Structures are given as C-alpha cells and as structure tokens.
C-alpha cells in the first residue's frame, strides 16, 4: 500500500513537472517507455498497474504545457489533410463508441478510447519540441545508443535460467511478478528464455527493437556507412539484431526483410551513391559477423524455432484477410471501442471475461479494430495510416537536407511496418508510432524554415546596394 501511494505521488509530481517543462517531459516519456518494464518487474512490482499509467500522466502534463505555449506562440505543423481529417472523425466516432450498448460498462470504452487516441496529439506536439537539427540529431542518437545497455541486459537474460530473478514478467494487475520460471516463455523444449530486456513482455521489446534498427539504419545512411564516427551506431545495430534473435520473434526479421529493398533505394543508393554501396556491403557483413559471434546460441535457438513453425504464412496473410471476413458479423458500428482491450478484464469485475465479444475473439490488430469499431471505424483508422505512409514517401523526395531525408525514410519505413501492426493494442508501438508521425512533421517544418531562411538571405544579398565600382561587393561577401 505504501509502495502504491509513493508511486502515485511520484506520478502526480512528474505530471506537474512535465507541464512546466513540456519539451524535456516529452523526452522523459520516451526514455520511460524503454525502462518502464524494469520498474514494474524489479523496482516497484506491487505498484505495477500504477506505473503502467505513469507515462500517460507525464504525457498529459506535456500536452498541457504545449497548449499553454500554443496560446503565446502558435505553431501549426503541416499535418496532411487526409490524415488529420480521418483521425478527427475517428476520434469523434470513438467518443460515441464509448457508450456502445454491447460494452459491459463505460470504463471499458474509456480504456479503449485512450488506447486509440491518447498518443495521437504527438503529431502536433513533437514538431514544436525540438528547436533545430542539432537538437533533434543529438536526441535521436542518444536514444538509439540506449539499445546497447538494453541489449546487454537481454544477453544476460538469455544466458540465465528461466527461474532467475532477471527473467520475470511484470504483473498484469497488482500482485507479484511471474517468477521462478513459471509462465516464462522459452524456445520450445529448450531451457533458454525468450528475452524481454527492460520491457514488461516480449511484444513491447520487439517493437522497440524494430524502431531502434530503423534509427540505426538512418544514422548509417546519413554517415554513408563509414566506420569512422559510426562505431557506436554499428555496435547498437549489432546489439539490436542479436536481441531480436534472443526474443525468438520472427516478425521483426520478416518486416526488415520486406522493408530492406526500399531502404536500399532510399537510404543507400540515393543518399550515398556507388561508394556508399561498397561500404554498406562491408558494414553489413561486419554487423552480421558480430551478431553471429556474440549470439551464436541465439542464432541456433532462433533457427530451431523458425524451422519448427508451421503458421508463418497464415500470420502474414491473416491481418489482410481476416478483417473483411469479420465485417459481416460486426456490422457498421462493431461491438464497441475497447471491447477486446487486454486490460478490459480489470474493470469488469463480476462479468465473465470477454463474454461480450460473443465468441468473436481476435488476435491480430486489424481484426480487433474491425471487431471494436466496425466497418466505418476500421476504414477511418487505416485511411489515416495509409495517409502517413504516403506523406512519408513524398517527404523523402521533397526534402532538401540529407538529414531530413534519412529521418523521413525511417518514418516512412516505420509507417509501412505498422500499417497492419500493433499501434492500438501495443502501448510501446502506439507511443513510438505517433512520435515518428510527429517526427515527420518536424523535419518538414525544419526543412521549410531552412529554405525560407536561404531565400531571405538570397533576397537580402540581391537587394544590397552596389559598391563604388558598381560590382555589388556586399552581395559578393555574403555569397562567399
């Protein structure tokens, strides 16, 4: 009880701090996202449910501080009309869905609305949170390098037995963590665990690793895949790939394989030319050799699990087909927002868990969205996701700065990876997805401001009076 009260007081204090320091608060949310699971598993297991909402309180403080800033100095990022319009209608539709008669109570609807739309304002907040390229570059690079200690922890988990205290999961409600090996997921009959790093569960960790991999690839594209000044980035990428192997999840590798041709065209061939292609092949070979050296057991365990899998094709095709098969059963409005949310059981005491789903249980996110929001809500959500993909790809070809282009490339790749992936029902995915949405709006803003500054400097040089010789020496000085 004391532990829960202390965490609650900390959360309130953190939200007040974020209100007054909203830019730093946004950065704190992203760092907390990485280490929240560690706090829930090992530091405050008795207050795990309170810690689950800590980042949400921090974000509310950030939003409040941002709105206060907007009144003094408005900033309107160029969010595409298709994206903003479909999301706005979807949010209003979601408010009505809270009172869907199929739901067991309003609390389920509120949980659902939070999952869908609480992180959406990052589209507008992130573009105002970074002052310039240097500020953004330093934060993204430091955020990427967090993958190194996280990867080292994952390696320690992989080498530890399932019963070790380091291999625990966060509780889904108040209570003790899963410990002593009970319930810990391993590689089939193997005693080696599927690691979670600093995250509560495997799904959040794999989502973070995919994002870290895309960030690492962006920085290497920016540096033309040179080893000089990029050794830490190479190290981070190697740790990320090794950690992916140790999670045992096939999804991140399938997504990277699908996205790789696009990255090759946009991030290697377009940015670096022929010399970068050679450095890319050499660098990729070094990374893969390092991964195999430090994680040989992980490679063997992963390959063994992959060979024993029979449902890979069904998992790939299912998210594209299953929602349309379900549409006829849920109709235009669905069963209500939050109906299949993973925490709905906690606010429906006395009701048989998920009995309101009428047996229509779904696993993949696209099917869950169809189940909850029906045909109309599903169309609005995925219209916005496709709109972000298009906006990201267009930005890659419109932006003038190499740094802005590689950031936009990583954003576009993330949007593609999450078109049918976990954004609503994966909290880690939700925060990072909408952060990258705001990141795209940010580089568009910075690129536009730099273009305007160059144009104004050019006009000022043209308007400068000519010198005594009639040659305009002032303008020549600026040009030099």
What features would you describe in this structure?
By secondary structure, the chain is mainly α. It folds into two domains: 1-74, no CATH class; 83-118 and 130-425, no CATH class. Helix content is 70%, strand content 0%. It contains 18 helices and no strands.
Question: Keywords for this structure?
Answer:
single chain; 480 residues; mainly alpha; 2 domains
Write the layout of secondary structure elements.
Elements (H helix, E strand, L loop, with lengths): L1 H19 L1 H22 L4 H5 L1 H19 L8 H17 L8 H12 L4 H8 L3 H13 L1 H13 L42 H21 L8 H17 L3 H44 L1 H12 L4 H19 L34 H34 L3 H16 L9 H37 L9 H7 L1
Helix pairs in contact: 1-2, 1-4, 2-4, 5-6, 5-15, 7-17, 8-10, 9-11, 10-11, 10-12, 10-16, 10-17, 11-12, 11-13, 12-13, 12-16, 14-15, 15-16, 16-17, 17-18
Q: What is the number of independent domains? A: 2
**What is the ordering of alpha helices and beta strands?**
HHHHHHHHHHHHHHHHHH
Low-confidence segments = 173-182, 472-480
Radius of gyration: 24 Å
Compute the separation of the termini in Å: 68 Å
What does the largest sheet look like?
none
Overall geometry comes to globular
In terms of DSSP E residues, the strand content is: under 5%
How much helix is in the residues?
Answer: 55-70%
Mean pLDDT reading: 86
Tell me the structural class. Answer: mainly alpha
Oligomerization status of the protein chains: single chain
The number of strands is: 0
- The number of helical runs is 18
């Amino acid at each position: 009880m004391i532990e829960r009260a202390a965490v609650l007081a900390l959360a309130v204090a953190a939200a007040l701090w974020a209100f007054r320091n909203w830019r730093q608060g946004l950065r704190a949310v992203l760092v907390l996202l990485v280490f929240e699971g560690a706090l829930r598993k090992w530091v405050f297991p008795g207050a795990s449910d309170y810690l689950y909402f800590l980042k949400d309180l921090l974000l509310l403080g950030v939003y409040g501080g941002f709105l206060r800033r907007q009144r003094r100095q408005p900033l309107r990022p160029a969010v595409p009309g298709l994206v903003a319009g479909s999301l706005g209608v979807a949010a209003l539709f979601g408010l009505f869905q809270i009172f869907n008669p199929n739901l067991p109570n309003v609390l389920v609807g509120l949980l659902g609305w939070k999952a869908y739309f609480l992180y959406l304002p990052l589209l507008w907040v992130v573009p105002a949170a970074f002052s310039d390229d240097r500020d953004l570059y330093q934060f993204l690079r430091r955020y990427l390098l967090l993958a190194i200690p996280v990867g080292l922890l994952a390696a320690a988990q992989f080498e530890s037995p399932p019963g070790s205290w380091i291999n625990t999961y966060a509780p889904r409600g108040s209570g003790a963590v899963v410990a002593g090996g009970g319930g810990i997921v391993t590689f089939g009959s193997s005693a080696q665990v599927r690691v979670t790093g600093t995250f509560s569960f495997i799904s959040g960790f794999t989502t973070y690793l995919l994002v870290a991999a895309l960030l690492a690839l962006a920085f290497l594209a920016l540096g033309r895949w040179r080893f000089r000044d990029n050794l830490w980035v190479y190290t981070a990428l190697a740790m990320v790939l090794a950690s992916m192997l140790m999670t045992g999840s096939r999804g991140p590798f399938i997504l990277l394989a699908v996205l790789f041709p696009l990255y090759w065209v946009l991030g290697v061939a377009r940015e670096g030319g022929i010399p970068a292609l050679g450095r890319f092949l050499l660098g990729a070979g070094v990374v893969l050799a390092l991964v195999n050296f430090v994680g040989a057991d992980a490679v063997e365990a992963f390959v063994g699990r992959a060979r024993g899998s029979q449902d890979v094709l069904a998992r790939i095709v299912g998210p594209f087909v299953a929602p349309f098969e379900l549409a006829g059963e849920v109709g235009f409005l669905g069963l209500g927002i939050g109906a299949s949310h993973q925490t709905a059981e906690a606010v429906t005491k006395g009701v048989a868990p998920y009995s309101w789903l009428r047996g229509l249980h779904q696993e993949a996110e696209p099917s869950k969205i169809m189940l909850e929001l029906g045909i109309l809500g599903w169309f609005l959500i995925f219209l916005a996701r496709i709109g972000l993909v298009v906006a990201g790809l267009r930005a890659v070809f419109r932006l003038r700065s190499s740094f802005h282009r590689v950031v936009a490339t990583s954003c576009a790749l993330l949007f593609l990876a999450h078109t049918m992936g976990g954004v609503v029902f994966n909290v880690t995915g939700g925060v990072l997805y909408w952060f990258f949405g705001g990141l795209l709006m940010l580089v568009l803003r910075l690129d536009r401001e730099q273009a305007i500054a160059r144009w104004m400097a050019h006009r000022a040089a043209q308007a400068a009076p000519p010198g005594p010789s009639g040659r305009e020496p002032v303008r020549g000085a600026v040009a030099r």
